[in-house]
Amino acid sequence: MNAAPKIPDFMTADAFLDWNAPGPELWQLVDGAPIAMAPASRTHGAIQSELARRIGNHLIEKGSPCSVVTTPGVIPRVRADVNVRIPDLAVICSGYAVEETALKDPVLLIEILSPSNRAETWSNVWTYTTIPSVTEIAVVRTQEIGVEFLRRAADGSWPELPTLVTAGDATFESVGLTLAVEQIYRTTRLYAGS
C-alpha cells in the first residue's frame, strides 16, 4: 500500500507554482502553507459558470481585449513570496506570450462565498486589495441572492465595508457590465424566475 504523499509544511510562492500537488483538489498558498480547497457545491459551480459566461460574452460583444479566467492563481503584493491565492474568477486585460502560472495584473476578482469558507474567502478578498491592478472585487453569496462589491477609489484606497446588492441591478464597473442580480443565480435553486 502506498503512503499518502507528504504535504510540505512551508513553501515559497515559486516552489508552490512548481509543485505537483497530490489529488484532484485545488490548492492555494496562504502565508507559506499549502491549503487544499474543498470541492465546490452545485450552487457555487453554477454561479461560477453563469458569471464566466455572461462576463465573457459581454467582453466579446464589446470587442474588449480582456478575458475571463476561472480559478487562476494570483499573487498579492504583500507577502508575495509566500502567497498564491485562488479566486473563483478573474478578468485580465493584458495579453501574454509565455504561459503564466499566476495572473500578474487582474482588474476584477470574483469570489463565491459558501458558509463553510467564509473566513478563508474574506481573508483572500482583503489580500486581493494589495494587488495594484485590481480595481474591483465581487463576493457572490450562495445561501441567498446577494453580491458584495468592493471598488478601489480614485486615490487608490478601498472602502472599509463592501456595498451589498440583493435586488435590482448588479454592476461590475471594471468591465462595464450591468445585469439583474437574480440573473447571476439563473441556474441555481435560488432563482425564482421573472
Describe this structure in words.
There is one protein chain. The chain has 194 residues and is α+β, with helices and mostly antiparallel strands. The protein has a single domain, classed as tt1808, chain A. Helices cover 20% and strands 25% of the residues. It is built from three helices and ten strands. It has a six-stranded mixed beta sheet with strand order 3-4-5-6-7-8, with helices on both faces. A two-stranded antiparallel sheet has the order 1-2. Helix 3 links the parallel strand 5 (106-113) and strand 6. The protein is globular. The mean pLDDT is 95.
Q: What share of the residues does DSSP label as strand, in percent?
A: 15-25%
Kindly give the count of domains: 1
Main-sheet strand order equals 3-4-5-6-7-8
| CATH domain fold name | tt1808, chain A
The chain-level mean pLDDT equals 95
Tell me roughly what share of residues is in helical segments.
10-25%
Please specify the SSE layout and strand pairing.
Layout: H1 13-18, E1 26-30, E2 33-37, H2 42-62, E3 67-70, E4 89-92, E5 106-113, H3 118-128, E6 136-141, E7 147-151, E8 163-165, E9 169-172, E10 177-180
Parallel strand pairs: 5-6
Antiparallel strand pairs: 1-2, 3-4, 4-5, 6-7, 7-8, 9-10
